[in-house]
UniProtKB/TrEMBL annotation:
<dbReference type="InterPro" id="IPR025937">
    <property type="entry name" value="PDGLE_dom"/>
</dbReference>
<dbReference type="Pfam" id="PF13190">
    <property type="entry name" value="PDGLE"/>
</dbReference>
<feature type="domain" description="PDGLE">
    <location>
        <begin position="4"/>
        <end position="89"/>
    </location>
</feature>
<keyword id="KW-1003">Cell membrane</keyword>
<keyword id="KW-0472">Membrane</keyword>
<keyword id="KW-0732">Signal</keyword>
<keyword id="KW-0812">Transmembrane</keyword>
<feature type="signal peptide">
    <location>
        <begin position="1"/>
        <end position="26"/>
    </location>
</feature>
<dbReference type="GO" id="GO:0005886">
    <property type="term" value="C:plasma membrane"/>
</dbReference>
<feature type="transmembrane region" description="Helical">
    <location>
        <begin position="64"/>
        <end position="90"/>
    </location>
</feature>
<keyword id="KW-1133">Transmembrane helix</keyword>
<protein>
    <submittedName>
        <fullName>PDGLE domain</fullName>
    </submittedName>
</protein>
């Protein structure tokens, strides 16, 4: 199997998980749930910036759909960053 097919399989799996996780649990953010259960959620500070606050895409009424959209955006942003880094490393190896 080619290298690009593995990338596409990984992207598809990540998008599938981002789609299913909000439907599988009412608390898809495990760290926040643990903080809530252990009683120290109130001590958390605000993030220095928020692109999609509370993992909910703004302007979408359905909370599950808004969470899925936020997850897809997160997956695509991280996938793009990792892909560019991997591409740069591979290009550097070919030239040296």
């Amino acid at each position: 199997m080619s290298f690009k097919k593995w990338w596409l399989i990984g992207l598809g799996a990540a998008l599938l998980l981002a789609t299913l996780s909000p439907l599988a649990s009412g608390s898809p953010d495990g760290l926040e749930r643990v903080a809530e259960d252990k009683g120290f959620l109130e001590t958390a500070g605000d993030a220095p910036f928020q692109i999609i606050a509370d993992y909910v895409f703004p302007g979408v009424e359905n909370e599950a759909l808004a969470t899925i959209l936020a997850g897809w955006i997160g997956v695509l942003v991280m996938f793009g960053a990792v892909y560019v880094i991997a591409w740069a490393i591979m290009k550097n190896r070919k030239t040296t």
